[in-house]
Amino acid sequence: MKERRMKIEVNLKIILLLILLIFLNKIKIYIIFITFILMHELSHMIIGILLGFKPKILRLNPLGISIEFYNYDENSKVNRLKRIFTYLAGPMSNFIFATFFYFINKDNTFTILIIYTNILIGIFNLIPILPLDGGKILKEVLKFFYSPKFTNLFMIRITKIILIIITLAYSIAIFKIKNIAIFLLIIYLWYLYIIEEKKERLIIRVYETIEKQ
């Protein structure tokens, strides 16, 4: 049996983002963001390994670090629950960090930045769209009640609808918010959606082929 090893992928767009943030004088905020994104992903990895999953790919991208596990028995309800707990581990770790720093020193400016960063990372990742943790959790929950084909198709549509709402909301509030980081984040989410949609549609075609046989 071939040994399964973890691969490491680095997205070179990180360099472009670093140059932009240095130009905008936002590098300090980015370092804090990356640090707690790392803690977020380490939580996924630790819980996943404890529950019996093996890391497949570790990706370094402009939004930080993400980890993907080998899938074990997609139809197993036990493994489905394990995946839900693994996906929840990341956002929960951010809320724990926010609470921890709140009780240490909530009056310090640097500490407040850490608290808000963790709260934002936690809430952001719980948005029910793919490939965020919230979307993955929703997808696993839906599999308890619906077919894989319906679940995949639903996730494509709900992700697109929520992204349109987020984009429209930001477009309306852009003059008040005036935050280029949010604009870049929305663009990156659409980029991720396009990639995820291709994967999901491919899986749907596989299910349709199986149904015809």
Characterize the structure shown.
By secondary structure, this protein is mainly alpha-helical. It is 72% helix and 8% strand. It is built from seven helices and three strands; from the N terminus they run βααββααααα. The protein has helices at residues 13-23, 27-50, 77-105, 109-125, 133-142, 148-177, 180-212, and strands spanning 7-10, 55-61, 64-69. The chain has a three-stranded mixed β-sheet. Helix 3 (77-105) packs antiparallel against helix 4 (109-125) and helix 5 packs antiparallel against helix 6. The protein starts with 6 loop residues before the first strand and ends with a helix.
Architecture blueprint of SSEs:
Blueprint: E1 7-10, H1 13-23, H2 27-50, E2 55-61, E3 64-69, H3 77-105, H4 109-125, H5 133-142, H6 148-177, H7 180-212
Parallel strand pairs: 1-2
Antiparallel strand pairs: 2-3
Helix pairs in contact: 2-3, 2-4, 3-4, 3-5, 5-6, 6-7
